[in-house]
Amino acid sequence: MARIELPDLAHAYKPNPQRPEDYALRPMNLTWDDGGAYALLGPSGCGKTTLLNIISGLVRPSHGRVIFDGKDVTDLPPEARNIAQVFQFPVIYDTMTVFDNLAFPLRNRGWKEAEVRKRVEHIAAMLELSSDLKHRASGLAVDAKQKISLGRGLVRPDVAAVLFDEPLTVIDPHLKWLLRRKLKEIHHELKLSLIYVTHDQVEALTFADKVVVMTQGEVVQTGSAQELFEEPAHTFVGYFIGNPGMNLLACPVRDGRVYPGADGIALPPAAQAALAGSAGITIGIRPEFVECAPAQGVDTVAATVASVRNMGTHFMAEFTVGAHTVTAKLRSAPARAGQAVWLRFPPERTLYYVNDKRVA
Ligand SMILES: Nc1ncnc2c1ncn2[C@@H]1O[C@H](COP(=O)(O)OP(=O)(O)OP(=O)(O)O)[C@@H](O)[C@H]1O
Prior knowledge:
The protein is an alpha+beta fold and 360 residues long. The protein has helices at 48-56, 98-107, 113-126, 142-154, 173-190, 201-207, 225-230, 235-240, 269-274; strands at residues 4-11, 25-32, 37-41, 67-68, 71-72, 83-86, 161-165, 194-198, 210-215, 218-223, 247-254, 257-258, 265-266, 280-285, 291-293, 300-310, 315-321, 324-330, 340-344, 351-354, 357-358. The strands form four sheets. The chain has a six-stranded mixed beta sheet with strand order 6-7-8-3-9-10, sandwiched between helices. Strands 13-12-11-14-20-21 form a six-stranded antiparallel beta sheet. Strands 15-19-16-17-18 form a five-stranded antiparallel beta sheet, with no helix packed on it. It folds into two domains: 4-238, Rossmann fold; 244-358, CATH 2.40.50.140. The radius of gyration is 25 Å and the shape is elongated. β12 and β13 form a beta hairpin. It is built from nine helices and 21 strands. The structure holds adenosine-5'-triphosphate (ATP). GO terms for molecular function: ABC-type ferric iron transporter activity; ATP binding; ATP hydrolysis activity. InterPro entries: AAA+_ATPase, ABC_transporter-like_ATP-bd, ABC_transpr_FbpC, ABC_transpr_MalK/UgpC-like, Mo/tungstate-bd_C_term_dom, NA-bd_OB-fold, P-loop_NTPase, Transp-assoc_OB_typ2. It comes from Massilia violaceinigra. Keywords: ATP-binding, Cell membrane, Membrane, Nucleotide-binding, Transport. This is ABC transporter ATP-binding protein.
């Protein structure tokens, strides 16, 4: 296993990049700790596969270095980097048995047959493939084949890291859920460094200890599920993570108060200091933390109920506040559509953003 550092990394596929949009990866400094379980999360086209391929050596970065345990591997080809990679679709030998497929990476490196058997049986048991070991891979369903691909990725204990590029795409939803949990267990048992690429927040948050969130070629936050939920560092993290995402209200500021509608809320000193002459700021509040107040009070804002849906475990309500729509997940029904109410954004749950970056 290795600690992976990517100092001053950037990548443009086209020569002579000039504008930020010319880069598939904008300048970043990243470190992946030895033995960590990471997810790389972001929408399609944000640069996840490019970043993964730079680590494995399939793509050479146009700027910056790739360092494994202090050693510069930027110019080494994939086969010299000691990385295992699992792709979206199974990459296996159809004519071989499941056992031979799993054994292949070990035999290739000259392992003794008794050791090969022990390790293959161990990995097969973890992936619930033991009863298939003697079967030819060609006769198996696509999800069993993808489990073999996962097994081939995990079988070598000496790899610097195992990289997964949306590996559960071909797996049916129920098995997907089981395998995701299985991969987490396997990580705890094998202590391999894993990097798991996905555009699915549930997949990322259930698998990883740390999630690296990307958008438009940039890493906007690295954190635990809780940190990304409670303290999004960037507006993108706020609305991409969560169901529904964070309410983001671009509001004017006057005399130390921020105005989502007619009523102002006191702006915390750190947010005031970060304004730097700007007359506006974005309020970020998760639907889970919006409160419907029984009466007007300090820092409440006037709102109108736009819609209420009973979701069984909670009520999903939409309110109109000035020109904004505010979504709230509430325990009890907040009156009926069209009625006037008061909303409260608890100060300890309300975040502030300037130019998409969190300032308070
Ligand atoms: N070989 C290539 N040549 C030129 N541009 C590329 C190449 N590969 C990717 N790109 C561009 O780089 C950007 C990032 O692509 P990348 O595949 O890394 O994103 P991604 O987040 O993995 O997306 P997806 O989930 O759709 O695979 C995109 O704009 C893409 O069009």
